[in-house]
Amino acid sequence: MSSPAVSSYYWKGFRDSAPFVLVVGPFGMLFGVLAVEAGLKLVETLTLTSTVFAGAAQFTALQLMQAQTPILIILASSLAVNLRMAMYSASLTPYLGAAPLWQRALAAYLMVDQAYACSIARYETDRDMTVPQRMRYYFGTVTPVGIVWFLGTVAGAVLGAQIPESLALDFALPIAFLGMVIPMLRTLAHVTAAGVAVTVALLAAGLPYNLGLMVAGLAGMIAGARVELMLRRRGTWT
């Protein structure tokens, strides 16, 4: 495979994930606004974004910080929100596991929902891709999302209260997750995990420190894993 052909997969990934910037931008702006309102300085806000690089976990940590939650609860809740990244990594390993260590480490740092959704869909439909092509595609999917997320955070932190409430930036979070999750509910295990997580989250909404979210995530993963194991044993896994 020639080098230009390998490089072209980067732009394929870029184009496939580009539509997500329509929600990632407002999502980043909303985080920037809320971070400044919570008392974080611009440097602190950008440091949090660049080091954690995980929108849902950042929002969770920010909300808990505002509620004067103990640091251990903040860390545990943020970790629970990001446990899905471990599952993403596990499902990508068969496709990217042979890549150089530095590439896998960089891919792990840059892991976001949009990149995973685009990449796993591409890998499962294009089985003939080489490992270099897969890595180029993956980094292509991350580029527009990562850049817009960071710039959106900067804009939100700098503009702050100047952004009118009529823009309703908070719509971005549910829209982004619905747009990624719904197309991925392809098996009974996926549907079960989502259904159990939603049900438990609603039932446990009254728990302090947003612990209901942690409980719901764990319950969903356990339920999905049990269904997958059951179907594999019966030989009906699809």
UniProtKB/TrEMBL annotation:
InterPro entries, alphabetized: Brnchd-chn_aa_trnsp_permease (IPR011606)
Annotated family: Belongs to the AzlC family.
Main subcellular localisation: membrane
UniProt source species: Pseudodonghicola flavimaris
Membrane topology category: Multi-pass membrane protein
The protein's name: AzlC family ABC transporter permease
Keywords: Cell membrane, Membrane, Transmembrane, Transmembrane helix, Transport
Location(s) in or outside the cell: Cell membrane
Record keyword Lipid biosynthesis present: no
Stretches assigned to coiled coil: none
TM stretches of this protein: 20-40, 137-160, 167-185, 191-224
